[in-house]
Write a structure and sequence with these properties.
Rossmann fold; 11 helices; 2 domains; about 400 residues; alpha/beta; six-stranded parallel β-sheet; disordered C terminus
Length: about 400
Amino acid sequence: MTRVATSRPAILFYSQHSVGLGHFVRSLSIAGALAERFRVVLVSGGTIPKTITVPTGVELVALAPIGSRGGADTSLASLTPGLSIEEAWERRLTTLLDLFDVVGPVALLVELFPLGRRKFAREVVPLLEHARAARGAPRIVCSVRDILVTGGRDQGAKDNEATLRLNHYFDAVLVHGDPTVIRLEDTFRPTVELRVPVHYTGYVVPRRERPRATPTGQPEVLVSAGGGKVGAGLLRSAALAHERHLADRGLRTRIVTGPFLDDEEVRALESISANAPGLHIERFIPDLASAMASASASISQCGYNTALDIVRSGVPSVVVPHDEGRETEQAERARRLAALGVVRVLDSSELTPRHLADEVLGLLGADRSHAVIDLDGARTSARLVAELVGAGSAMHG
C-alpha cells in the first residue's frame, strides 16, 4: 500500500468482486468522491485488471484474490497460482485486521455484505467484530447496489439473517440507486424489522454529464459484456450476427471483450473477424459510455455499470441479461429500464445470431433515450458518510 500523506480522518472501504468488475468500479467511484474529504483506503478482494485507474487520493490495497470460477460454477477459488483457498483466506483476514489497526478509520464501509456476499462472512464478520471492539469504534456503513439477487432457496431466511447482521453491526445502509426506478424492498423482503436507516444515494457513475458523441461516419454497433467473464455466449453470437447478417449492410461491429474473457474465446472471436469485413475485436476501452454515445446501436448485458453507460449515452440498446444459475439482478434491472424506454430486452433463451441481428436492425435510426434518473450517487454517498461521522444521528430521518 502506498500511503498518502494526509492529516484527514480515514475511511476503510472493503470491496469484493467475484465475477464482473461492476462492484469494484462502483467502489472506486465512491472512494474517489470520499477522498475529497477523507483519507481513503480501499481494500479489494478480487482480481484487479491493469487497465483500472485508481482515483487521486485513494490508496488501493489488494488482498489475495478470491473469486468465482466463472460460468455456471459459482464456487469460490483462490485466484493466486500456488496458493490454496484456505491459505488465501488466512492471509486476507490477517491483512484486514492489521490494516484496520494501522488506518484507525472513523468509518468502515462494507460493499454489499450482509445483503450479499454471504460466502465471505468468514472474513467480514471478524472484521466487523474487530471494528466494534476498537477504541473509538468507527461508524459502519453497508454500501449496496440498486438490486439484490432473489429467488434462491431459503431466500426469506437469508434476508432475515442479513437484517439481524445489519441491526447488530451497522449504522446505515447506502443504496446506490434511484427509488423512482426500484426500491430496496422490491428485492429484499425480511420478516424481521430493519432498524438501520436506509438512504438512497442515486446511481453511481464516474461522471454525471452525458458523454460527447464523435460519430465515425459509418453506422457502428458496439458490443460489450462487462468484464467478460460470463459474456462469451453473447459476444460470440454478436460476432456471428455480424458475419452472417450485418456485414453486407455496411455496418461496422465493434466488440469489446472485457479483460476477463478467456483467451481462447478471444482467439475464436478474432478468427471470425478475419473473415468478416467491418468486425473489430478489442480487449478494453477506457470510456465505454463515450463509445456508446458515438455508436448507432449497443448490444450488451445489463450489469450496473453498463446499464448506466446506456442511460448516460442514450444509445439505442438491446440487452441480454446474464441469468445463469440463480442470477436475477440483471433481468430485473433490464425490466425496469425497458419500462422507462431505455432498452429493449432479449432473453438469453432467444439469443441467436439471427435474433440479435434483427434487434440491431430494429434499433438503427431509433431516437436516443433521455431518461431522468438520479446519477449523483458518488457525491451523495460521500456527503452522507461525512454527516454520519460528523453529526452522529444526522442521517436518521
